[in-house]
Amino acid sequence: MKNLVETLKTNVESFLKDAELQIESGNKAAGQRARKISLDIEKALKEFRKVSIENSKK
């Protein structure tokens, strides 16, 4: 679970950096990277929810 949280933290930081680049300078490649990372974040959050529920049942 700790690794999952670290992965989420890293992905969110990358997303924020790329999203800011797209907003501030119109960098299209950064926007594409941000969209890709957002999908990875979504998958990781679903996995976190699954693991969290399993741990709460113990």
* Approximate helicity band: over 70%
Overall body shape:
elongated
Low-confidence stretches: none
Count of helical regions: 2
User: How far from one another are the termini?
Assistant: 14 Å
**Major sheet attributes:** none
- Quaternary structure state of the chains depicted: single chain
Main structural class: mainly alpha
> What is the CA-based Rg, rounded?
14 Å
Structurally, the number of domains stands at 1
Q: Mean pLDDT score, rounded?
A: 95
Strand content: under 5%
- Give the number of DSSP strands: 0
Listing every helix as H and every strand as E from the N terminus to the C terminus, the arrangement reads: HH
Brief account:
Helix content is 91%, strand content 0%. The protein has 58 residues and is mostly helical.
Q: How is the topology of this model organized?
A:
Blueprint (H helix, E strand, L loop, with lengths): L1 H24 L2 H29 L2
Descriptive key words:
single chain; 58 residues; mainly alpha
Structure description:
- This protein is mainly alpha-helical.
- The chain has one domain (2-56).
- The chain contains 2 helices and no strands.
- α1 (2-25) packs antiparallel against α2 (28-56).
- The longest helix is centred in the C-terminal third of the chain and has 29 residues, at 28-56.
- It is elongated.
